[in-house]
Amino acid sequence: MDVSGMMNIAKIMKTISPLLVALIAASASASPVWKMQKPVTHGLSVFAETKKSRIAVDAQGVAIQGYDPVAYFKQNKPVKGSPKNQSVYQGAKFYFASAADKKEFDKNPTKYAPTYGGYCANSLRKGVLKNGDPNVFYIYKGKLYFCSTKAAAEEFEKDIDKHLIETDDNWRQLFGS
Questions:
Q1: DSSP helix, strand, coil percent of the chain (3-state; round to 5)
Q2: What do you get for the CA distance between the two ends of the chain, in Å?
């Protein structure tokens, strides 16, 4: 390109640049496109917007509302734990009904800690991160699961193996493993 061609380009850019800036500023202040469009979420928008702990905890950092995770396996029912018998696992405090349950948990926390961190398995399957209810639980293939309601648990259990695959996929998207 010769010098005169480059000078013409420079004149055009000098004229267009302020117009482009004015156009962009006007369109952004009038009705920003980015505010009008809904993001593509594939049902997982809460994951992108929320940074959550891998374990559902209350304001004091206590998991499963203070229930003893070992008791679900030993007694097949929810049993309140005590702050006197507590362990910390993955940053969450777990309470136990007895020193023996605490000792058992400490030997193998992955065996007793709730799957999906105590979040509702059925909600997670649907792309929503919601705390599970410690009174709505089941043990399946040696793992402890919670749901937020009895209806959610019944829905999840209808096709549990398929639903576990879907829930595992969502868990990996959220936490990477």
A1: 55, 20, 30
A2: 56
Is residue 146 within 8 A of residue 121, CB to CB? The reply is: yes
pTM (predicted TM-score): 0.71
Clarify whether residues 107 and 25 are in a common domain: no
Cα–Cα dist 44/170, whole Å? 8
* Number of folded domains that form the chain: 2
Closest CA to 164 of 136, 134, 124: 124
What is the domain range of residue 58?
A: 45-175
* 50 and 31 in a common domain: no
Distance (Å) of CA 51 to CA 46, 55, 65, 143: 9, 12, 20, 25
Residue type, 87: S
DSSP state of 40: P
- The DSSP code for 114 is P
Higher pLDDT, 40 or 162: 162
How does the average pLDDT of the chain come out, rounded?
82
Q: Per residue in 62-93, pLDDT tens?
A: 999 999 999 999 999 999 999 999 999 999 99
137-143 long-range Cβ contacts below 8 angstroms, 24+ apart: 137/72, 137/78, 139/72, 139/73, 139/76, 142/111, 143/115
- Rounded distance, CA 145 to CA 165, Å? 14
